[in-house]
Amino acid sequence: MKDRVVNPYLPSYEYMPDGEPHLFEGRLYVFGSHDKFGGKVYCENDYTCWSAPEDDLSDWKCEGIVYRRTQDPTPCGLLHTHMWAPDVCRGADGRYYLYYAMEWYNRVGVAVAQTPAGPYEYYGEVRYEDGTRYGGRENERIRFDPAVLHEDGVTYLYTGFSSDRMGFLCKIAHINITGEGSTVVRLGKDMLTIEGEPKMLLPGTRNSSGTGFEGHEFYEAMSMRKFGEKYYAVYSSVLSHELCYAVSDHPDGGFQFGGPLHSNGNIFGGSPAQYYWGNDHGGIECVNGKYYIFGHRQTGKNECSRQGVAEPVRFENGRFYPAEMTSQGLYGKPLPAKGSYEAGIACVLKSKQGACKVTKMRGKKHPYITQDGKDRESDPAQYVANFGDGCVAGFKYFSIPEGAQLTLTVRGHHGRRAKGKLQVSSDETFSRVSEAAWNGAKESRVSLRLPFQGTCTLYVRFLGKGAVDLISLQF
Q1: Which of 93, 173, 324, 339 is the most buried (most CB within 10 A)?
Q2: Hey, which residues does 438 pair with through a beta bridge?
Q3: What confidence category does residue 81 fall into, taking pLDDT thresholds of 50, 70 and 90?
Q4: Over the stretch 397-445, which tens digit does the pLDDT of each residue have?
Q5: What is the signed CA dihedral for 96, 102, 103, 106, rounded to 10 degrees?
Q6: Is 152 marked active-site?
Q7: Is 252 a catalytic residue?
Q8: Measured over all CA atoms, what is the biggest interatomic distance in the chain, rounded to whole angstroms?
Q9: Which of 14, 18, 285, 469 is catalytic?
Q10: Which domains, ranges and CATH numbers included, belong to the chain?
Q11: DSSP secondary structure letter of residue 379
Q12: What is the dihedral of CA 345, 306, 308, 74, to 10 degrees?
C-alpha cells in the first residue's frame, strides 16, 4: 500500500457521492454524481471519476471531468439542471457506456467513451422499440438512478424511485412516483433500445407484504453485480440511511432479501444514530478476492455536500454481512498513531442530545463537518465545526501504543471565545479520560497523554461554554 487511506477515501475537498465501483483493465474506477461543497441542491457539479490500481486502494487518481451537463441536449430548466447518479458498463463492442438521469426528468441518457475514464460523448437516450423515450409514456413511473449490468452480450438496465410521499413533487414536475419498487428492462445491441416491456424487480412499500423485504423495502439507488453464479442487487431502503442487498439466480427477477450492508448513521437493529445521517447510494465490488461496499456520508447541514466512503465487507457462503462505517475504511485495519489526521475523518459525531437526520438539524447545538473557503479541487482541510458542550467525535479505529500523546488543534467557533475542557477516552461513556483545559478563541494546540492502548475507538468530547472547531489530531 502506497500510503494509509482513511474515510472518506478521496481527498476531503472532493464531494462525489453515489459511488459505483467497477474493475476495468486492472484499475478500480469509481463513478458517481458530483456535489458541491456548500451546495444547496444535489449534484451541482459535472461528472468526475477517480481510479486506483487494484493492488493499492490508497493510490487514488482523479481522472478529471468525464462528462458535462452541457453535452446533454435536454434543455435546462427549473427542474432539469443537474445530472444525478450514473452507472457505467463495458459493452460488447469494447466501449464504455455511461447511463444517467437528469434532475426530475423522466429519461435515461447515455454517453459513450473508448476508455473507462472517458472523455464521454453523448450517445442517445434509452427508448422503446417504437421510438418513445423510456419514461415518456403517459403516467409512466420515474426512471431514476439507472444501474446497468452487461453480461455475455446482454445488457440489463435497472431504475427506480419508490415512495408514496411525493404527491406535491409529482404535480409540479409532471412525473409519477409510487411506492411499487424498482424495474428492469433488457437492452438491445445498440445499448439504447428496450427489448420487451419493463418488469418489476424489488418491492416497495405498496407491494412488500409477505416478500421478506418488509421494513427494508426498495427506496432508490439500484446497483447490480454478479459474483459466482448469483446476482446481487444493492439498493437504498425506505430507511434512507442504509444500503441493503437482495440475491437471485437471475438478473431480472426472483430476488430474495439478503440484509443490511451499510448505514451512514451507523444505525443497525434500531440502535441510536452515531453520525448525522441522510440518503445513501453505492455498490459492491470484488478486488483481488476481497469485497468492498462503497456508499456516501453526509457533511454540513444538508444532504447536498456528500462524500464517498468505503469499507471491506465480509462475504461468506454467498452472504454479505453488515459493515460498520469507520474512519479507517479501505485501510482495512486500525490506523497507526503516527502523524496528523484531519478531524473530518470522524465516523461518530453527535451533540449532547445525540445525532439525527442531517436535514433535521435545528438550532445551534449540532456539530458538523465542513471546510473553510469555497468548493475547490485542492488543499484538503476538513474539520468538525460547532463542537459545543457535550458534543462527541469518534474515530474508529486507532492502534494506540503505550504512553502515546495526542495533540488536538482547536479554535473558537466563528472566532468566538470558548471555555471548558477537552476530554479523550477509548469508551463512549468517558469512564476513563485524559483531559485538558481550553479557554480562548484563536487556533492553538492541546496535548494529552492517552491513558489507554491497543486497538481503540478514539472519542473526543468538549465540556464547557461556547463551542470550538476541532481541526486535527496529531500523534
Answers
A1: 173
A2: 420
A3: confident
A4: 999 999 999 999 999 999 999 999 999 999 999 999 999 999 999 999 9
A5: -120
A6: no
A7: no
A8: 73
A9: 18
A10: 20-331 (2.115.10.20), 335-474 (2.60.120.260)
A11: -
A12: -160
Alpha-carbon span 217 to 162, nearest angstrom: 9
Tell the residue number behind the cell numbers 446481487, with chain if given. Answer: 232
Q: What is the DSSP string of 14-81?
A: ----S-EEEEETTEEEEE-----TT-SSS--SPEEEEEEETT-TT--EEEEEEE-GGGS-SPP-SS--
Structure-block grid coordinates of residue 39: 451546495
Helix (H) or strand (E) holding 281: none
Specify which residues 234 forms β-bridges with. Answer: 223, 245
Give the span between the Cα atoms of 148 and 197, in whole angstroms. 16
Catalytic residue among 14, 20, 87, 220: 220
Place of cell 459511488: 19
What is the model's pTM?
0.96
Instruction: Give the whole-angstrom CA distance, residue 319 versus residue 67.
Output: 36
Beta-carbon contacts of residue 272 (< 8 Å; ≥ 6 apart): 354, 355
CB 378 within 8 A of CB 390: no
The mean predicted confidence, pLDDT, of the chain is: 96
Residue with cell 467497477: 22
Residue 137 has pLDDT above 90, yes or no: yes
Reading phi first (left if > 0) and then psi (alpha if -120 to 50, else beta), residue 338 is in: beta
Is 124 in a helix, a strand, or coil? strand
Integer Cα distance of 289 and 53 in angstroms: 14
Count of positions (residues) in the chain: 475
Across 193-217, average pLDDT? 97
